[in-house]
Amino acid sequence: MSPNNEHPTSSNTHHVTARQSYALRAEKATHPLTSYLLRLMTLKSSNLCLSADVSTANQLLSLANSLGPAIVVLKTHYDLISNWDYNPSTGTAARLARIARRHGFLIFEDRKFGDIGNTVQLQYTEGTARIVEWANITNVNMVPGKAAVDALAEAGRKWRERKRYELNVGLSADRQRERDGRKASIVSITTVSQHFEPANSPRSGGEDFGEEVLRGIEEAPLERGLLILAQMSSKGNFMNKEYTDACVESARENSDFVMGFIAQESLNRQEDDQFLCMTPGCQLPPAEDEDAEVKGDGKGQQYNTPQKLIGQMGADIIIVGRGIIKAADPIIEAERYRQKGWEAYEERIA
Ligand code: 5BU
């Protein structure tokens, strides 16, 4: 493979989706989670994903709580967290899911699966983290081949079917108990898996969060979604055009599971492509010098502004980590990124 380390420079907003509003795309999207996310973006006027690259669970949860109102997706690297608590009911993922429902954002575990099909299925659904249980979205590095995507899609489908079945069994058992006048007390697999569900859900064991749920939208659908790592932001990466094209083909083959791409430009090419493009490598110049050039991080990361990524490259969601987390006031900075990202989108569709 020859490296494709140059960032795309030309405009990439010719596809019909680049001119459509997120609300219209929500109506047209066939993937339920894509449709939900686009509605959430419309509701919150936000196309911002926070990359919560911190090292303790408390830092993660506190960032999620304070920046939640500005974002639509929170991206985790759970293996960066030194004290990640794996308990399904009281652990880090369960607590994050409650905050996600309170503020209205999806959880995206940036796991970059990259192994043979059988292994990625196990990594996704089993092991300590059981990512499928708590992450609405995850991603795959397709270097091992399309089988990795097919295998994750199969695991995602199976999980959803099992979950639906468990929920139905759980609901009918509850109804039966109600009819019998008995208290809901049996501990079933349903009860255990329900703890992963977001707050205030008919699926979440009846916990009532009252006012503490984002109004105007229901909880996220059960469907899980995958993003394919089609292009990277890092200098000198080996993701060439041939690889990127294969990612797009694979996405079309698994469009009931693949929501879109991690890429530096929109990859919608065919008329009916409706993929999302989520883009890392995003920073703003300082507020006091908005014309300044944004530079890399000295460790291979390359940055572009929201204006370039959303406005010219057709990205849908900007992914921002240190630009926000390391700011003197992350809440103010997250709001600044939200505004800039949204303005760039409004200009694009105008
Ligand atoms: P930053 O602090 O905004 O540079 O963080 C970017 C995040 O996005 C970080 O978690 C990376 O692992 C992630 N990332 C990226 O920077 N570039 C890529 O091409 C991919 C992921 Br894929």
Characteristics:
350 residues, alpha/beta, TIM Barrel, eight-stranded parallel β-barrel, 8 strands, 41% helix, disordered N terminus, binds 5-bromo-uridine-5'-monophosphate, orotidine-5'-phosphate decarboxylase activity, decarboxylase, pyrimidine biosynthesis, RibuloseP-bd_barrel
Overview of the molecule:
This protein has a single domain, classed as TIM Barrel, CATH 3.20.20. The two termini are 39 Å apart. An eight-stranded parallel beta barrel has the order 1-2-3-4-5-6-7-8, surrounded by seven helices. With 350 residues, it is α/β, with parallel strands linked by helices. The radius of gyration is 20 Å and the shape is globular. α2 runs antiparallel to α3 and α4 packs parallel to α5. It has 13 helices and eight strands. 5-bromo-uridine-5'-monophosphate binds next to β8 and α12.
SSE topology sketch:
Elements: H1 16-19, H2 22-28, H3 32-44, E1 48-51, H4 57-67, E2 73-76, H5 92-103, E3 106-113, H6 117-125, H7 131-134, E4 137-141, H8 146-180, H9 189-194, E5 225-229, H10 241-253, E6 258-262, E7 276-279, H11 306-312, E8 317-320, H12 322-325, H13 330-349
Parallel strand pairs: 1-2, 1-8, 2-3, 3-4, 4-5, 5-6, 6-7, 7-8
Bound molecules: 5-bromo-uridine-5'-monophosphate.
| Overall outline | globular
Give the total of domains. 1
What small-molecule ligands were found? 5-bromo-uridine-5'-monophosphate
Radius of gyration from CA coordinates: 20 Å
Cα end-to-end separation:
39 Å
At CATH level 3, the topology is: TIM Barrel
* CATH class value: Alpha Beta
Main beta-sheet strand count, sense and barrel state? 8 strands, parallel, barrel
- Total helices: the number is 13
Level of helix content?
40-55%
* Strand fraction: 5-15%
Q: What is the CATH-assigned architecture?
A: Alpha-Beta Barrel
Organism: Mollisia scopiformis
Family: Belongs to the OMP decarboxylase family.
GO cellular component, one term: cytosol
Keywords: Decarboxylase, Lyase, Pyrimidine biosynthesis
